Amino acid sequence: MFPFNFEWVWDMSHIVFMGGLWYALGILGAGMTFIVLKTIKDTAEGKGGDHH
Amino acid sequence: MDSALIPKGVKRCSFFQFMGGLGVVSLVLLWGVYAMLLCWIKGLNQTNMNDYYGFALWIWADLGVIALGGGAFFTGLMKYVFGKDELKHIINFAVLIGFICYSSALLILAIDVGQPLRSWYIFWHANVHSMLTEVAFCLSCYFAVLTIEYIPLILENRQIDKVPFWHNLSHNMHTYMAVFAATGAFLSFFHQGSLGGVAGVMFGRPFAFREHLFIWPWTFFLFTWSAASYGPCFTIWLVRITEKITGKKLVRETAIQLLAKLAGWMMFTYIIAKIIDTIYWATVTVPGMGFTLADFYTNNAFYGYWILFAELVLCGVVPALMLVTPKIRQNPIGLFIAVTLGVIGVSLNRWVMVLQALAIPVMSFDQWVLYIPSWQEVATTILPVAYGVILVMISYRYLPVFPNEAELNPLAPETPPVVEAQTEEDGETQDAPEPEMAPAEA
Asked: For residue B387, which of B151, B54, B65 has the smallest C-alpha distance?
């Protein structure tokens, strides 16, 4: 899973498979991080308060 | 008792009635959990799997729910990427069904692996030459996508939505959902395909083996195509069943019709490709491997030509033609029959690719080996169904799964009509909301 695992080999199969996994996880992780940070900012600015 | 949690403008049964229904389904769930614990504690000797059937009922159920859950990725792709905005009326339910299907698939796999505590090995010690590794990666990631798509629905609960942070989080997740939906479609394409690829690359199983395009056998594309075709049928089928149980119209007919039409054309093109694939396989691939078509459909007690006819014609060509014909599609009974046949069709396809492929003798000394699952396998396969029913019940009661429900089922005004008529005449209710406006707010 990681280059520091003993079984890791720098070949095309590892690059494609694990690259695909980390690419997908990267989009999901970065997307959610951005959304949570934006939500904190929006809440601090008082947005959403008029919903009550 | 729980009225504060129920969405505004809609009617639900009493809390005790709800708990009673939940209790009945929970008994089935507990039966499944008991069988699951038996499999985990005593091992896979609780099943009727053997050297012939390393893949059995669980893998069929797995492939089945993944295909049927394809309605989520297809609806999301159409709405968020291709701009079919009408599907916003059904996307919540499609996501809920997708979430249930994929969590069920993971649960079944957790039982099937026998050693669930070692599930993480597939990531840590990944076999990068296996299509199943790709399936595991995409399945896990896509489940994360479905969770991300389901969270805003939970946050829209009437009480949770009052908290500004959760309200803003839900709003922001909706705003950027297209990114996750596109990622989900990408992941779905590969794991649906790879599940088909697993069958198609089995050179030692001529029934399942298919010719390749580069590294991908035809089954790779056929599985993705069929999931996109039949998955929406399952979503529509469940909408109709939920409507029947609740006695309400829950989704706008325009959304149902659009999804049915898209599914119909997908199914129509899929079944043409599938028939071409079958003819080529029967006339070129199979004879080339020293077999005839009759070897796969005769000399046994169960698998006859009927199953080929049922999969391709009765549950393939027929529902496809029904769904692409506007007059039949717009008829409620015609639509229900078509989507029911579609659901059976994709389940049959996954059954033959998993179980018939293993039943057929391959070596000259082999015989047909039929398989009957143990009660533990049956119980653990019904377990996700009970879990799904419970999640639908809870979500339907407390979350705005059907955004048009209030609009389609306006509540009768609480004030008596006579009194209301009098006050209107008196001109005293000019500021009061009109009865039909109240549900729209919800």
From this structure: B65
Those residues whose C-beta lies under 8 Å from the C-beta of residue B272, and which sit 6 or more positions away, are none
Distance from CA of A7 to the nearest CA of B (A): 8
Helical segments of B201-331, H only: 218-246, 253-280, 286-288, 294-297, 305-309, 318-324, 326-329
Q: Which of residues 1-30 of A touch B (CB under 8 A)?
A: 1, 5, 7, 13-14, 16-18, 20-21, 24-25, 27-28
Instruction: Please check whether residue B232 is in contact with residue B74, taking contact to mean a CB–CB distance below 8 angstroms.
Output: yes
Q: What is the pLDDT of residue B42?
A: 94
Evaluate if residue B432 carries a pLDDT over 80: no
Complex prediction ipTM: 0.91
The two tokens of residue B290 are 């020293």
| Interface contact A47-B125, CB threshold 8 A | no
Asked whether the predicted pLDDT for residue B317 surpasses 90, the reply is yes
* CA dist., res. B92 & res. B238, Å (int): 13
- Chain B CB within 8 Å of residue A35 CB: yes
- B234 φ, ψ (degrees, to nearest 5): -65, -40
Provide CB contacts within 8 A for B214, sequence distance 6+: none
**In whole angstroms, what is the distance from residue A26 CA to residue A31 CA?**
8
> Quick one: pLDDT band at residue B52, thresholds 50, 70, 90?
confident
DSSP string for B245-276: HHTS--S-HHHHHHHHHHHHHHHHHHHHHHHH
Query: Nearest Cβ partner of B128 from A17, A40, A52?
Result: A17
Say how many C-beta atoms besides its own lie within 10 A of residue B357's C-beta.
Answer: 19
Q: Please tell me the distance from the alpha carbon of residue B99 to that of residue B93, in angstroms, as a whole number.
A: 10
**Any alpha helices (H) in B43-160, and if so which ranges?**
57-68, 70-76, 91-112, 121-124, 131-155
Q: How far apart are CA B49 and CA A27, in angstroms?
A: 39
B14-404 CATH fold = Formate dehydrogenase/DMSO reductase fold (1.20.1630)
Name the pTM for this structure.
Answer: 0.90
Q: Two tokens at A45?
A: 């600015």
End-to-end, the C-alpha distance of chain B in Å comes to 20
